[in-house]
Specification:
Two copies of one chain form a homodimer. Helix content of chain A is 36%, strand content 40%. Chain A is of the alpha+beta class. In chain A, strand 2 and strand 3 (55-61) form a beta hairpin. In chain A, helix 1 (24-39) packs antiparallel against helix 3. The model of chain A has no long low-confidence stretch (mean pLDDT 97). The A-B interface holds A 1-3, 5, 8, 12, 14, 16-18, 20, 48-56, 58, 64, 83-84, 88-106 and B 1-3, 5, 8, 12, 14, 16-18, 20, 48-56, 58, 64, 83-84, 88-106.
C-alpha cells in the first residue's frame, strides 16, 4: 500500500538491501516484528516495501529526531546486528527530507 | 543492485506505484526504455527498483534542477501520461534531499 503521508516536509529513510540466502524464516519473522514495532514509535508516518533482486523499504517520519530514536531502539539494534551477521550481504541506508510530493489515483 | 551514489547531499525521487493488470508487455518495454533514457540525463546518479504488491523505484540525482529536467523530458512526459491512463491505479512521487547515508557490505 502507498503510505498516506501528511503535507511535506517530512522525512524518509530509504533502506536498500541484498539478502543472503540464509535463515529465511527467522528473517521473515523479524521483519514482521520490526514493522509492527516501527509503527508504534513516536513520529512514525508509514512504510512502503518491495523486494525482487534487491529489497527497498522506505519508512516515513515526522522528524530527524524520530528517525534517530527508532535507529537506537533496543530491539531494533539487535535486528540491525543480526542483519549484518546473517541476513544481508549488503545494505545502504539513506536519510532524506521529503521536500515535495504529488500523486495520482484512478477514479 | 544498490546504487553507488556519491557523498551526500544529493537528491532522490521515490516513486511508489500500484499497477493495473493491463498491458504488461508494453509496460515492461516502456519501463526498460525509461530506465535507459533516465541514465542518459544530466545529473543522473543511479536507480534502485523492486516490485511485489507495490512497486518502488528510487532514482538519484545531483540536483533539483536535474530532477525537474527529467520530469519534463518529452518521451518521459508521454510515459507519465500512459502511466495515468493505463498502467497505474495509483502512484505517489516524493522528491527528497538525501541528508546522510551509510552502508554495509559483507567481506
Amino acid at each position: 500500500m502507498i503510505a498516506k503521508t501528511p503535507k511535506s516536509p517530512y522525512y524518509a529513510v530509504i533502506f536498500t538491501s541484498i539478502r543472503t540466502d540464509e535463515d529465511a524464516q527467522n528473517y521473515a519473522d523479524m521483519a514482521s516484528l520490526m514493522a509492527a514495532l516501527a509503527a508504534e514509535q513516536p513520529g512514525y508516518l508509514g512504510v512502503e516495501s518491495a523486494r525482487n533482486d534487491i529489497g527497498i523499504t522506505v519508512s516515513y517520519w515526522e522528524s530527524l529526531e524520530a528517525i534517530q530514536h527508532w535507529k537506537a531502539q533496543a530491539d531494533h539494534l539487535i535486528a540491525q546486528q543480526m542483519g549484518r551477521e546473517k541476513w544481508y550481504s549488503a545494505y545502504k541506508t539513506r536519510v532524506c527530507k521529503v521536500e515535495r510530493d504529488y500523486g495520482f489515483e484512478q477514479v
